[in-house]
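Chain A, query sequence.
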Amino acid sequence: MQCAVDHPELAGLRSWQLGTRDAHTIYERFGWRSADPSRWMARGVAPSDIYG
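Chain A, predicted structure.
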């Protein structure tokens, strides 16, 4: 995960999303937060910006 976050070609992304069913705590270590507690996580924007 850290390699993807630090990759220079991805540095310009304003937001990221990922889906996970059971690894929320792992991704939280890399700055992700729950956007929809059942599955989706976001990084770089507030979850309300994604889901309203």
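The first helix runs from residue 2 to 6. The chain has a mean pLDDT of 80.
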